[in-house]
Amino acid sequence: MALDAEEDENTAVEKLVRTIDKSGFGNMEIIGQFNLGFIVTRLNGDLFILDQHACDEKSSYERLLATTVVHGQPLIRPLPVELSASAEMVVIEYREVFEQNGFRFKIDQDAAATRRVQLVAVPFSKKTQFGVEDVHELVSVISDRFGDGASGRKNKMPSLAECRLPKIMAMFASRACRFSIMIGRALPYSTMLKIVRRLQELDQPWNCPHGRPTMRHLVDLNDIKEAFS
Question: Which of 72, 97, 99, 140 is the most buried (most CB within 10 A)?
Answer without folding.
Answer: 97
